[in-house]
Amino acid sequence: AQTVTQSQPEMSVQEAETVTLSCTYDTSENNYYLFWYKQPPSRQMILVIRQEAYKQQNATENRFSVNFQKAAKSFSLKISDSQLGDTAMYFCAFTTNYQLIWGAGTKLIIKP
Amino acid sequence: KAGVTQTPRYLIKTRGQQVTLSCSPISGHRSVSWYQQTPGQGLQFLFEYFSETQRNKGNFPGRFSGRQFSNSRSEMNVSTLELGDSALYLCASTRDQETQYFGPGTRLLVL
User: How do B5-7 and B53-57 pair as beta strands?
Assistant: First the structure.
């Protein structure tokens, strides 16, 4: 079965701290894309970062970076210098057969 | 470039009625996907269309259907609404098998 597991239902950190969200997945495919999306209270789903599975180099987008371990099927998200606007639900997902397989999400709260 | 748009944004229906939701993709994107998001089930894939053809369908009853038009706009229809159909319905577009960009969603409440 193709699944995504996010083992941290909720996390909270102080503003400016660094936080890492965990994600493991299971797929038998070799080529796929991995994503982190955030969903703030507005419910708009916003792309945070993307990783192509065939690339060994970890993706980075400003304060956001990933640690992609293909053999371990692990895809964690690190947020540096966290800001109040980072407060949201964060979803890990990967593509297969024209669809996204989603994790259950991690609720991240940034405290002032 | 304009993002994905969805209409209506909010909808209240009663059990047994039917509803049609609309999605306009980003210009140039030919693939449109639909997802249902509920507190209990999380995000679940409904279906995906590319060039007016359904390429994949999730595990939903036949009451859920969709279509795509020649301009890539897509609609989904839910007939004989049930209370459990209350959800946020998200539409996403992509060029093909790449990053999906999401619309603001349609919140459906079934009474």
Answer: unpaired
Q: What are phi and psi of A74, to 5 degrees?
A: -125, 140
What are the pLDDT digits (tens) for A58-100? 999 999 999 999 999 999 999 999 999 999 999 999 998 889 9
Q: CB–CB of B58 and A98 under 8 A?
A: no
pLDDT digits (tens, 9 = 90+) for B19-55: 999 999 999 999 999 999 999 999 999 999 999 999 9
Residue B87 in tokens: 């959800």
Collect all residues of chain B within an 8 Å Cβ-Cβ radius of residue A46.
102
Partner-chain residue, chosen from A47, A91, A104, that has the shortest CB–CB distance to B99: A47
pLDDT tens-digit readout, B53-72: 999 999 999 999 999 999 99
Give the dihedral sign, CA B77/B83/B85/B88.
positive
The CB-side HSE value for B9 (13 A sphere, CA atoms) comes to 7
Q: How far is the C-alpha of B80 from the C-alpha of A34, rounded, in Å?
A: 36
The answer to whether A63 touches A74, Cβ cutoff 8 Å, is: no
